[in-house]
């Protein structure tokens, strides 16, 4: 019997194929006491399982080949978790102290780490808890003797729709030689790795379907509409034919997009637009270069600091920043300084906060850790000698924070001069506009900064007082709320008046449905995931800024979100 399920659309496109259910270990393992003489053997059993999984992950990493850099990064992260003493060493200690079996000890320690990740305010970092669960799940499967299996290749020409509770990057590598058409999962969100990897592979995906694995049968025919977030199980012939036609149209459109790689981004009336890339790790710069991005508009440095006991030193950071700058070969690279909350545990010390979303995070955290911040600033300055590097400061709320940052930057410059190390003396410094207070005090910002970048994800969250990671209120997260649009417009216009360039680097920039709206607001600099660039470029090429500007001005006067949405659709 045919039925339809609605979830969260995280990777666009249409997929038609047969379901393959991937088993999910719930990690509900038995707990039993080990005899004293067998305790060390139990520790050895854990170590052997960890070694086996590390070897498997290393092999997958080596075999990843042309897989997107996101996959390589996640594999590397899983290997790092297996080297983390907070996970493995602590589990071994638990085996010895409680005379517990290896599976139970490992899962207990995993749960402690997951609790710490859940306290992290940043949605992207918070969702890395799934990586901890998945790598532990892999070890537990080895301990229990339950290895996973790959979906079979189809003979009827249709691909495989992978149905899972959640998918790890190692799963995606394992599926790469099979005709995987799409992913649907019980769990997940827009910043989860299923979403990230699916987008980078251009595979349609719908997540957060809750109990999809319990209502779909193996080999059942499934349609995924990755644009609308719709999954159709056992469709009738009429629906199937309709989606076959739509799928063909989507694929034709995608093939046409590749022709736009070297096309200059400009509106119909000649307004030039810069399209930049958001990246997480140095290898991502190759993907940005592959679609001929105008530069890197946001290099998130958090990944360099994650899953380790101590901060990366100056040389390690310098090499990472230099690699991106050299890859982009003269194009601008905007590097955001560390943007994490104080709830992240480092070197065995934690700061407990009741509300980390409003606590010591981003620039506040960096200013509270001047030694760490100076190390990062020196590394960035050193890399500036090799290309057009710009420094971006996250979550600014007052001019005082800018002044403190610039004082530390001057100190970092002085330290490098003492060491006779070359750097760009006039490296541009910009600020992220992510809180309403920053928009309302832009005059002070434009006097001190060389550029601004609007982080729409946090700006929406803080304007509407909605935690986008909280499922209970996530449906209230609305990029088209009148208050949000007015704050974005005010920032763009204030920057233009002051002669300070403004970009948008949040999710709104990578959504082609919002391109005309932002063009009409006066935005001329977009930054997004490399996989989104060509589609947004096409939307820009079809836009007429002269025609859109008065329409958007009228739209901004509307107070009702539904009316705003209708007006945006008419653009």
| Distance from first to last alpha carbon | 40 Å
Overall radius of gyration: 24 Å
Order of strands in the sheet with most strands: 1-8-7-3-4-5-6-2
Largest sheet: 8 strands, mixed
Strand element count: 16
Rounded mean pLDDT is 86
- Assign an overall shape: globular
Tally the helices.
24
- The percent range for helix content is 40-55%
Strand content: 5-15%
Low-pLDDT runs of 5+ residues are 342-350
Summing up helix and strand content along with how strands pair, one would put the structural category as alpha/beta
Spell out the key features of this protein.
single chain, 571 residues, alpha/beta, eight-stranded mixed sheet, eight-stranded parallel sheet, 16 strands, 47% helix
